[in-house]
Structure formats: C-alpha cells, structure tokens
C-alpha cells in the first residue's frame, strides 16, 4: 500500500473517531472539543485575521532569532574549532549551556529587557545558538585533511583556504546545525510567547486557554505542528539530502 | 639538476615518544623532464618523501631544492596528485580544475586553460558534472587535469592509480605517458607496483624499509610505448623483485612477530 494512502486512512480514522466520540458526548467539549469546533475556531481566527497577525508576528521573531543564532553560532563554532584555548574554556561552558532549555532564561531576560519582544527574541537566539556552535565546530574539525593538503599544493592558504575549502567542506554539518537550530528556536519561541507577551501564536494559545476556548487552543497547536513539519520536511530535509548527495556522503 | 634531494632524514615520534626513523640518508637527483618512479613496499616512507618534496611535510634534516630554490612550503610549481582524487565535491569538474587559477587570471582565461587540460584527459564532455557523478578513473583524470592546469614544472604523483581497477589503470598509464611526452613535465611517481614503474619511468628508485633508504637506482632504457618489449620488462621486473623480496620478507616477518607478541 502506498504510504500516502496509509497516512490518509490513518488520519481519517482518528478524526472520525474523535468527531463521533464528541457527538456521542463521550467527553465534554471543554475537555476535548470536536474537530468541527476546532475547524470553526481556525476559520474564524483566519477570517478576522487574528491568526494571520499572530503568524506574521511569530515568524518575524523567529526570523530575527534564528538568523542571529545562526550567525553567532557559526562564529562561535569557528572560534572553538580554530582555538584550542577557546575550545577548552568557552567550549565547556557551551556544552553545559546546551543542556539548559533556553526558556529558563526568560525570567532573567524579562529583568534585563522588560516584558517585550526583545526578551522573547533573546530566548529564541539562545535556543538555536549552541547547537549551531557545536555543529559548526565539528564541521570544521572534521574537514578531510586531504582537501586541505590538495588546496595547499594549489597555493591556497590562510583566509583563502578557509573561505574556498574549509568552510564549503563543512557545509553538511552547517545544514544539520541549521536544521536543529530551527527546531530549537521554534520550540523556544512558542514557550517564550506562551509565558511572555503578544501578538504571536503562543500568546494566542495562552489567551484562548485563559478564556477556556479549547477549540482555539487545539487549533493553534495544530498550526504550530503543521508549520514545524512543513519547514523540517519540505525545506530542511530536502536541502540536507541534496547536500549530502553532492558532498558524496550518501549514495 | 632540476630536483635535488640532499641527505633527507625524517623521524616520527611514536606513542611512547620514541623516535622512529622513517627516512634516512635519502639522496636523489632528478633531471628536468625525467620520469622517475619511487618504488617500495608499504611503510618504506616513499609517500612521506613525496610529501616532503611537495612541502606538505617537514623533513627532520636535509634539504630539497627544486629548480634552484629551496622547498619550504607547498607551491604551484609542484602539482600533486594523490591516491584519492581529492576533488572538491561542492564544485563541478570545470570549477575544480580552475580552482588553482582563480587568482592569477580572468575567469575566461582560467576556463580556457582548464578546458585545454580536460581535453587532454578526454573529459571535455563532463565539464558541468559533479565529482560524485563520475567514476573513480574519471575523478583521477580530473585531478590530473587540475594539477596540470597550474602548469607546474614538476608533477608529484602519490600512487595515483592505486585505487583503480586493472583496465582503467592500464588505460590511464597510456594517457599519462602521452601527457608526459606532450608537456615535458618532470614527474616523481610513487608506486608499489613493479610493473607500473617499469612501464612508465625512465628511472626506478627502489626503496627499502625500516628505516626507509634508497636501495637501487635502476635505469629503464626501453623505447616507448613499451608494450612490445614484454620480455625485457619481465627481466627488469625479476631483477627488481630480487631486491624487494628481502624487504617484503622483512616486513612480513616483523608483522608476524608483532602478531605473536600481542
């Protein structure tokens, strides 16, 4: 059976069971609203444009946060790969920070920047930076020595060697790092918005929850999941696959 | 003399910080345009020697002079071909071959130069292919074109055909011979294949192992192409085998001793 067909059957039966259960009042709508109610909440949200504003606001923060974390992460990664002292000092700190979910920085961020956009972006940046750092570092450390030797015999050295050989050779790790950074940033953003301020998808989620609008809560959860899936599967996985193939790391 | 290798010594430290002599008293002179093979069993330091000539490895003592200047670092006057093609996978064939030319000429000139050498290795139809789309033999031909494109006086080849199958290897031997006759490069060719060295070179430097030293310097005085001189080639092969047998036995008995110790 075709995988797509399998998926259609799977999702249809879940939604059908969910709808039928709601109609038969096996559970209360406040515990779990029916699919129709969720759909209605989504349609209303998009019609009065609140969800669209939320999406735009969330994506703006994500774009800024992710871009900053990729930049800072790459720079730190290069530093750790190139300097042994930095690796032995800053490297250890980063390994420790990597283990801390970035949302725990929110209280401090609110003290530093106030209850605003900047605090959320700060948490998003912290979410993606360290994983990017570690991937960039291992990308540069794992460049095949033969590439470097070959380039040296062709007169390449210093900055030229870095830009034309070492960095491009580490692209597969950069792509993996960016993919993970995106996933961490996305989670950090939702947590940050949930606990901080709006507009944004996370904020609307909490707003709906405060007013007991479970249909909208589930609607927003679905939007978050769908976006996460689309970006990961349709963008990052494809890029990663192309890169791995081109770089000869996968047949 | 075009290449002078003067009393090169190379020591490595093993994991107990004990010095191991990899190369001792290596003296070798090569004339301009000569095709010289360096032949020896694995572990005799022949690749290390080539790497020192390339400027990629520092010798413990001794000096290398190429075209009257002392070798201290890698340079474009010495093109190198490795056992693996070492092409950059993110560049296509044409971009790989123009890699060393970027700084000194315009894009157009670089591409024309690259195309000229790609034609020499018969890969004109693959300019826009990426390395992963080529066979091992084709990749190695691109690597040769890339080394030639910088127009070096010397070509250093470190077992360039070692990873290829017999038929491909024999075809590339023919191509390399043609290229050498056309371009008049000085070639230092490292190999462990006796027949390969006899087929291609003017001189064969036979090296022994532990420590790596030069055992013999053999002139091959056969007209090219050499396929028609099977009998003479066989005689030279047996002659060389005489020297190498002792060395190979030495390696084998040492490995056996090591194996029984552990």
Tell me about this structure.
The complex is a heterodimer of chains A (about 250) and B (about 260). With about 250 residues, chain A is mainly alpha-helical. Chain A has one domain (about 45-245): MetI-like fold (Orthogonal Bundle). In chain A, about 80% of the residues lie in helices and about 0% in strands. Chain A is globular and about 75 Å long. Chain B is an alpha/beta fold and about 260 residues long. Chain B has a single domain, classed as Rossmann fold, CATH 3.40.50. In chain B, the strands form two sheets. Chain B has a six-stranded mixed β-sheet, sandwiched between helices. In chain B, strands 2-1-4-5 form a four-stranded antiparallel β-sheet, covered by helices on one side. The radius of gyration of chain B is 19 Å and the shape is globular. Chain B starts with a strand and ends with a helix. The interface between A and B is medium-sized, with 20 and 27 residues.
Largest sheet of chain A, if any?
Answer: none
The pair of chains with the biggest contact is: A-B, 20 and 27 residues
Number of domains of chain B: 1
- The helix count of chain B comes to 7
Total strands of chain B: the figure is: 10
CATH superfamily of chain B: P-loop containing nucleotide triphosphate hydrolases
Q: What's the total count of β strands of chain A?
A: 0
Q: What is the CA–CA distance across the termini of chain A?
A: 26 Å
Second CATH tier, the architecture of chain A = Orthogonal Bundle
Q: SS-based structural class of chain B?
A: alpha/beta
Mean pLDDT of chain A: 91
- What fraction of the residues of chain B are assigned to beta strands by DSSP? 15-25%
The third-level CATH topology of chain B is: Rossmann fold
CATH superfamily of chain A: MetI-like
Tell me the distance between the termini of chain B.
48 Å
Mean pLDDT of chain B: 86
